[in-house]
Amino acid sequence: MNFIDLFAGAGGLSEGFIKAGFKPIAHVEKDKAACLTLKTRVAYHYLRRIRKKHIYEQYLRGEISRDQLYSYVPEKELSSVINASVGGKTTKQIFQAIDKLKDKRRIDLIVGGPPCQAYSYIGRAALKSKVKNDERNFLYKEYGKFLKKYKPKMFVFENVPGIKTAGNGEYYKNLKKYFKRLGYNLNDSKVNAFDFGVIQNRERVIVIGWRKNLKFSYPKFKKLNHTFTRADIFSDLPPIMPNQNDRTSQYIHPINEYLKKTEIRNCVDFVSQHITRPHNKKDLEIYKMAVEKLENEGRILKNNEIPERKRTQKNITDFLDRFKVVGKKPHAVIAHLSRDGHHFIYPSTTQLRSISVREAARIQSFPDDYFFEGIDVLKVRSAAFRQIGNAVPPLMAKKIATSIKSKILG
């Protein structure tokens, strides 16, 4: 089945569907850095198909430039990444670009999840009264324009659980009515990425729609009962300190069961983007307190427990969990990680720092050969954290795609 990925981000949803055997026609994303990440992944899949993956690995090691990497890939492959904002005047231009790419092929499936800030509980709190008029509340209508145009057999619409309660439930009610008017039956379920084998407590709503003339019903997602923890995603990575920016490093232990089963640690024999941000002395002192509080008392350090002389955050009445260590079952990775690492402190006093780009990517279940790009070479780290925080975990996406495929094939 051929698919389009709208609001594609760094490509987590696409990656899962590709791994399940679906074929991407186009990835539409407005963020320039994320589009470069998508192009680099397109290069990976193309070079793997023609058995020249060693060229991609040369890029990961820094032996060739990004432009050199792209020079090995046909322009039509790279142009499947469309750097444009869905909505308004640009939608027509996106249609034209997709029409060229698909040629005579049919679009069977559309996947994507519009930006969730206006639906999320945190986003609503931040936007306050402005949330009513936030245009992101109505991006489902822009999504619908692609359903009208291409009439795919099915669609997958991913978002935060808050989408069902935003605006007292009116937005979601209108969304369902709108998609039904376009000719689709639909259903949804709330899922947790942890149940799909992702070592992260990340809840999402998965809406699946199918044309009314199709014999289809919403798939049942089988929960994976497992006891894997953060140790299974961190233990083989080399110890590093703040502001470490080596292009590559070496694994320190053989592959474990989790990394092998999920193919997170795949056929590359080195680690890329195991890089960290700098920290000041005060923050590191607080990180040490936070790690010790979790180790000794099994709880999060509250901001009002930090001695005043060490405190860097003045607010001691609300949002007290400003400093949070990554637990055995990690909390959800968010895009705010690009601003500071206080919410994602590495769980050891021997490595006082926030988590690395590669560690964040592994929590989200991205494979180790997935490379996150930035527009500015000097700002790759921040761009990577933002993309990872906004992503759909590929492992969850693959399980959803596989369930849909099994349902179709009977």
Structural commentary:
It is built from 15 helices and nine strands. The chain has helices spanning 12-19, 32-49, 53-60, 66-71, 75-78, 90-102, 121-127, 139-150, 170-181, 230-234, 257-262, 281-297, 357-363, 380-390, 394-409, and strands spanning 2-6, 23-29, 81-83, 109-112, 154-159, 184-192, 203-211, 248-249, 271-272. It folds into two domains: 2-223 and 393-409, Rossmann fold; 230-390, DNA Methylase, Chain A, domain 2 (Alpha-Beta Complex), CATH 3.90.120. The chain is globular, with a radius of gyration of 21 Å. Helix content is 37%, strand content 11%. A seven-stranded mixed sheet has the order 3-2-1-4-5-7-6, sandwiched between helices. The model is unreliable at 120-125 (pLDDT under 50). Strand 1, helix 1 (12-19) and strand 2 (23-29) form a beta-alpha-beta unit. The chain starts with a strand and ends with a helix. It has 410 residues and is α/β, with parallel strands linked by helices. Helix 2 packs antiparallel against helix 3.
Keywords, separated by commas or semicolons:
9 strands, 7-stranded mixed beta sheet, alpha/beta, 410 residues
Looking at CATH, the homologous superfamily of the largest domain is Vaccinia Virus protein VP39
**CATH architecture descriptor name of the largest domain:** 3-Layer(aba) Sandwich
Biggest sheet, strands in spatial order?
3-2-1-4-5-7-6
- Tally of DSSP helical segments: 15
Order of helical and strand elements = EHEHHHHEHEHHEHEEHEHEHHHH
Largest sheet: 7 strands, mixed
Q: What shape does the CA trace take?
A: globular
Number of separate structural domains = 2
Residues in helices, as a percent range: 25-40%
CATH topology label of the largest domain: Rossmann fold
Mean pLDDT: 92
Number of β-strand runs: 9
Distance between the termini: 15 Å
| Proportion of residues in β-strands | 5-15%
CATH class of the largest domain: Alpha Beta
Radius of gyration equals 21 Å
Poorly predicted spans = 120-125
